[in-house]
Amino acid sequence: MEQYGLTLAVGIVVGVLARICMLRSDYRHFPGYPHGYVTHISLGFIAASLGAVAVPALVEKEFTAVTFLALAAQQFREIRNMERETLTQLEENELVPRGKDLIEGIARVFESRNYLVIAASLQASFITYFFDVKWAIISSAILIWIFMRYLATGRVVGDIAEVVPSKPYFGYAGYKTLLMIDEVVIMEVGLKEAREKILKESLGVIIKPKDDNARATLHNVGQRQAILHTVASLVGTKREIGELEWSPIARKNIDTGEIALFIVPNEPDIKALIQAVKLTPVLESARTTPLESRPGKMAAD
After folding, report:
1. How confident is the model at residue 50, as a pLDDT?
2. What is the CA angle 218-274-29, rounded to 5?
3. FRET partner for 247 with CA separation of 20 to 30 A, picked from 62, 159, 186, 229?
């Protein structure tokens, strides 16, 4: 029983530590409140307990106990629903919304990380029972590092596209009220005062996809909305309710697939804007790989 106690203790501690390491509040500030942390750490403790108890259950041939892992998987799916509903409610008060695709991506992340906790706890308890606590700690540290380095993080826009500055201007085919970035029409601005303010304070960038896979990803409307939300969160925006002239906008050049982004930021720093665009996560729902197919390769030639 002492060995089982040590096995359970090491497995639970490693699992909870893994969840804490993966529970980081970044610029999105979610979860950014004490109750959010309590909820996810508590669920992490439950996941760690399930992973830790699996080894003693198998050793004692209590195979029925292992079926609780299947039950836990069903419960953790509810986490995705919980996060989705929470973020959807918060979406109503966002001047620059996250978009459904980004919300779904965040919800999936919170669900999947509980499975990673089970895996970390399971391997820690296994190594502790059959080998030694010292090796369990070493292997757990390596596994958590792998989770943090490869599984808990994903690709960002900077990995798939080049971001270059481009100055917004007015005038296209004789229409002086059309706001342009490069060769892309952004919107029409009728008020002269608004046009003057935009010329003075706005910033623009061109997001150039590195290949056809990246172009297909940036074609996704949800991915573009995620970029706008990230940029507005990091450099700020002067958008106000009912004043569309100050709304951040991302439009596609239909000929090249490049994305023209316009914003009137609180912090007019073009380097900060470029960095904010590059830091935007590439959404799982937006990732497309046409170059992996024969027709896609033929079309790219």
Report:
1. 83
2. 85
3. 159
Closest C-alpha among 15, 23, 214, 39 to residue 115: 15
Query: Tokens 């085919």 appear where?
Result: 173
Q: Is the pTM of this model over 0.90?
A: no
Query: What's phi and psi for 123, nearest 5 deg?
Result: -70, -35
**How, if at all, do strands 259-263 and 203-209 pair?**
antiparallel
How do residues 258-300 score in pLDDT, each as one tens digit? 999 999 998 888 999 999 999 898 888 777 776 666 665 555 5
Q: Compute the distance between CA of residue 12 and CA of residue 38 in angstroms, rounded to an integer.
A: 16
- What's the Cα-to-Cα distance from 167 to each of 164, 176, 199, 254, rounded to whole Å? 10, 16, 9, 19
Q: Which two tokens stand for residue 133?
A: 């606590």
The residues spanned by each domain of the chain are 2-153, 159-300
Residues 47, 15 contacting (CB under 8 angstroms): yes
